[in-house]
Amino acid sequence: MELDTIARAVSQELNRQKLMLATAESCTGGWVAELITSIAGCSEWFDRGFVAYTNLAKREMLGVPTTILSRYGAVSEQAARAMAEGALKHSHAQVALSITGIAGPSGGTPEKPVGTVCLAWAGKNRDTKSHKHIFSGDREAVRRQSVAAALQGLLDFIR
């Protein structure tokens, strides 16, 4: 599915349910926020976006515990969950998504190769969900697939 198409589907569903969204992005650098704010009227359903690239930013902006970052790393489902929950806590949104990963071309390890991306979705009065993907392709392809998976995951989370 094209990114614009899925972003519009997210817009329609958030509008229908009268939900506000917050985003917490690392490796995508605000791509989700840019994509959804290109939709006219997004102020009805988009509260804010956090771009927290460094561990310090994740701690300061989103309240990700140092223990999670040191034990599991920034690219982990635990960190993604803490990021999404932190975006909720530091916004007026009812749902949040987060993305953290290794887009490449370097930075991978045998345990976490380039293309490893962790996503999470949190909501008021909802259990936080997360998923780990290993995407293929160059940096652009990994980031694009991450945005698409985060938005599709959000649709699944709120439906």
* SSE arrangement, N to C: HEHEHHHEEEH
Total count of strands: 5
What kind of assembly state do the chains in view correspond to? single chain
Q: Given the helix and strand composition, which structural class is it?
A: alpha/beta
Can you tell me the residue ranges where pLDDT is under 50 for at least 5 consecutive residues? none
The CATH superfamily appears as: CinA-like
Roughly how much helix do the residues carry, as a percent range? 40-55%
Mean pLDDT: 97
CATH structural fold name: Maf protein
Main sheet makeup:
5 strands, mixed
Overall number of domains: 1
Q: Report Rg.
A: 14 Å
Write up what this structure looks like.
The protein is α/β, with parallel strands linked by helices. The protein has one domain (3-158): Alpha-Beta Complex (Maf protein). The protein is 44% helix and 22% strand. It contains six helices and five strands; from the N terminus they run H-E-H-E-H-H-H-E-E-E-H. It has helices at residues 3-17, 31-37, 55-62, 66-72, 77-89, 139-158, and strands at residues 21-25, 46-51, 95-101, 116-123, 126-134. Strands 2-1-3-4-5 form a five-stranded mixed beta sheet, sandwiched between helices. A hairpin with a 2-residue loop joins strand 4 (116-123) and strand 5 (126-134). Helix 1 packs parallel to helix 6. It starts with a helix and ends with a helix. The mean pLDDT is 97.
